[in-house]
Amino acid sequence: MVVSPSCSCSVMGALILGCLLLQSSNSNAQLRPDFYFRTCPRVFDIIGKIIVRELGSDPRITASLLRLHFHDCFVNGCDASILLDNSTSFRTEKDARPNANSARGFNVIDRMKTQIERACPRTVSCADILTIASQVSVLLSGGPSWSVPLGRRDNLQAFFDRANKLPSPFFTLDELKQSFSIVGLNRTSDLVALSGGHTFGRAQCKFVTPRLYNFNNTNGPDPSLDTTYLAQLRALCPENRDGTVLANFDPVTPNSFDNQYYTNLRNGRGLIQSDQELFSTPQADTIPLVKQYSRNRSVFFKAFAEAMIRMGDLKPLTGNQGEIRLNCRVVNSRRSVENENDGVVSSI
């Protein structure tokens, strides 16, 4: 069930934080769920309230925030590099092909950071804000709760070239496995469970139309597509028309985090090629997991939570590495860093 914007967010935040702190974590020893327990105890509550408020006008926001976290972690670890704007030192990851005119939710992260800075100055990293926001987004959309290991710090640069190598919606299963393995996610369950993040949210038609009209240069559709679904998608995404039109990843429960995604794959109704590859690749070791997750939501939720924790542990900056950005879009100014070292509150 998706949480209504009218819910009591203070109660929700307390429940989230209390639940998460009671759970065990197998994370990097330097990250721990209670990292902000004393220094910023309201961090979950602040983030939750903002997401709930945003859901009132934007039902896509929870899926968008989860996607931002994926695209951050898969580039150089979960270091908030995706949030940086262009500078004289680097090109923003926002301009990379997988993110340009596609990644969204940056303004919502900005609002979270502003409120958290007021409550807990120079304490919570943008990387942790994005990590928490993704977990709360899943929970508010009907998905599982999990212990969120915290204590990351923010990178001082962005990685445009690496962002261009994010997993593509046109990848084959072998290409997907390779891209996951490169970042350190070697388990088949990681690939299949994290792909389940497409159980909610939208994709632009330009990522779908090749399957509908000229799959692998055959001048025909992807044969794995259900014919009824093919007709529906062609009506929504005509050939050589507006590629920015949005299609639901899950046409059955588009805004809910559930296991319908896997049932869709079994029925030939995966929206993008890389999703359907999990089930339609002959004799793939991903097929049994797709079947299992489609039959048992609890098993999927557990696998997803475990995979999210592993993804969140990819090359975290901790201790004195990186910094705590005061504005998630820019690296701290030299004066801000000096003031931080002096224990003086400062802002950009």
From TrEMBL:
Q: List the disulfide bonds.
A: 40-120, 73-78, 126-328, 205-237
The signal peptide here is 1-29
- Enzyme Commission number(s): 1.11.1.7
Q: Which GO terms describe its molecular function?
A: heme binding; lactoperoxidase activity; metal ion binding
Could you name the Gene Ontology cellular component terms for this entry? Answer: extracellular region; vacuole
Q: Where in the cell is it found?
A: Secreted; Vacuole
Residues that, per the record, bind Ca(2+) 1: 72, 75, 77, 79, 81, 93
List ligand-binding residues for heme b: 198
Q: Which residues form the active site?
A: 71
The residue ranges of the Plant heme peroxidase family profile domain are: 30-332
Purpose of the protein:
Removal of H(2)O(2), oxidation of toxic reductants, biosynthesis and degradation of lignin, suberization, auxin catabolism, response to environmental stresses such as wounding, pathogen attack and oxidative stress. These functions might be dependent on each isozyme/isoform in each plant tissue.
Among PANTHER family, the record links this protein to: PEROXIDASE, PEROXIDASE 72-RELATED
Would you tell me the protein name for this molecule? Answer: Peroxidase
Source organism (scientific name): Brassica carinata
Taxonomically, what lineage is the organism?
Eukaryota, Viridiplantae, Streptophyta, Embryophyta, Tracheophyta
